[in-house]
Write a structure and sequence with these properties.
The chain has a two-stranded antiparallel sheet. It has one domain. The model has no long low-confidence stretch (mean pLDDT 80). It is built from eight helices and two strands. α6 packs antiparallel against α8 and α7 runs antiparallel to α8. A hairpin with a 4-residue loop joins β1 and β2. The protein is mainly α and 256 residues long.
């Protein structure tokens, strides 16, 4: 019986608890957990990560194996922690959608709605473009490694069997939402300045030449200037987002 119990503790028990935390995070994390990724593919990735990371989580497991009630309690806690980590990563990914919405409003393209597969909902045209391209950059720059490292380090932040500090988790979530929104607005800042200059110019033009139909000129001019500006600042926008995403993930997933 001791050999069987040892196998359950070191093998099956470790795999189940590790899979619950990692699998939950993988189902909603950016890239892997997007709606356009098949559920079977997400499941296979979660199983693969669990096989690799289970030996690292094994020293953090309680021994001996707890009873049935305590086991379900641990599974529930692991689910909550995995959901929290995946949500944090997803929140910082939505900074691109926020930036796309700001750019769309600034360029008079806010009425052009498109299905955003990253959010599984309707979104702005520019936001969908930035979100899909951001997923490609996420994997091309190996930023997804930060999320995997955060899952490994989460066993130090959130030990198995210990009740997580809900107050700190709520504070981290609020700070993540605030930081993500700030990043999105900063990315769209050039377009806000451009729109302000266009409106000021159109206001001056309407006072100087009242017979000119300002609104007929403003809309195509805004779109043209926004697209021209995007061709010059698109790479800088992604570089800035990559840097902020990396810093944010290192900060939040290492406990701040």
């Amino acid at each position: 019986m001791s050999a069987i119990e040892q196998f359950l503790v070191t093998g099956v028990f470790a795999f189940i608890l590790t899979f619950v935390r990692i699998g939950t995070a993988a189902m909603i994390m950016p890239g892997i957990g997007d709606s356009f990724v098949s559920t079977k593919i997400r499941l296979h990735i979660a199983l693969g990560l669990t096989v690799v990371l289970a030996p690292l989580a094994q020293p953090h497991l309680p021994s001996p194996m707890p009873g049935t009630f305590m086991l379900f309690f641990l599974i529930g806690m692991e689910f909550i922690i995995g959901l929290f980590i995946g949500t944090i990563a997803r929140i910082f990914m939505t900074a691109l959608d926020t930036a796309g919405m700001v750019i769309s409003f600034s360029s008079s393209l806010s009425n052009a709605q498109l299905f955003n597969p990253g959010l599984a909902a309707q979104g702005s045209l520019v936001g969908a473009f930035l979100s899909i391209t951001g997923v490609v950059i996420l994997f091309a720059a190996n930023l997804h490694h930060l999320i995997i490292m955060g899952l490994v380090e989460s066993y130090e932040m959130f030990p198995i069997g210990a009740l997580p500090d809900t107050g700190s988790m709520a504070e981290l979530m609020a700070r993540a939402v605030s930081s993500s929104f700030s990043i999105g607005v900063k990315i769209g800042a050039p377009f806000l300045v451009l729109t302000l200059l266009v409106y000021v110019g159109m206001g001056v033009l309407s006072r100087v030449m009242p017979q000119v139909q300002v609104f007929l000129l403003a809309l195509p001019l805004q779109i043209l200037l926004a697209l021209t500006t995007m061709t010059f600042v698109l790479s800088s926008m992604y570089f800035y987002w990559m840097r902020e995403f990396e810093q944010a993930m290192v900060f939040f997933l290492s406990g701040g």
